Amino acid sequence: MKFSVKTRYAVRILFELSAADAPLSIYHLSDRTGLSPRVAEDICTQLRYEGISTGIVGPGGGIRLEVPLGEISLGRLVKLFEGGVAFAVCCGDKANDCPNQHVCENRAVWRKLSAKIQEELDAIPLDSLLLRQGTCVAGLSLK
Fold first, then answer.
1. Cα torsion 18, 129, 78, 8: sign
2. Strand, coil or helix: what is 18?
3. SS3 category, 39
4. How far apart are CA 38 and CA 11, in angstroms?
5. What is the mean pLDDT of each run of 10 residues along the chain (143 residues)?
């Protein structure tokens, strides 16, 4: 299973926000994560709508983490940026596109597997992904 670019980038941004002592501008996040300002802004917008971060306007403003990393699961990000785990089309939003959905014996297997993987991802808090040596799995330096 491979996570989307947005999910992986969101983890990088969240690690930076959690390490910051003050709100970070989009340009600072962009510089620290190696992402374009537009990509960083798109991800931060989705995180803000989800209630994970907030934007502060004015001097000294920027993006601030609203939820501790320990309360944000990897599964929550997968749901937000990828719509959840779906190993086959019949497990996701396009389930009705399959003409064999009512007779397919595999559908139940893929749905069960997708649900189990999602459940496991939901149980992984982001703070557990940080390494003790002060660097994170995304390769970013933490203070």
1. positive
2. helix
3. helix
4. 16
5. 88 94 93 93 95 89 93 95 77 60 74 89 92 50 42
23 close to 64: Cβ distance less than 8 angstroms: yes
Distance of alpha carbon 13 from alpha carbon 74, whole angstroms: 13
Amino acid present at 137: V
Torsion angle of the four alpha carbons 88, 90, 92, 93, in this order, in degrees rounded to the nearest 10: 140
Residue 138 CA to residue 129 CA, distance in Å, equals: 9
Helix (H, G, I), strand (E, B) or coil at 123: coil
Look at residues 76, 69, 78 and name the one whose alpha carbon lies nearest to residue 3: 78
Q: Where are the beta strands (DSSP E) in the chain?
A: 53-56, 62-65
Q: Which residues pair with 135 in a beta bridge?
A: 141
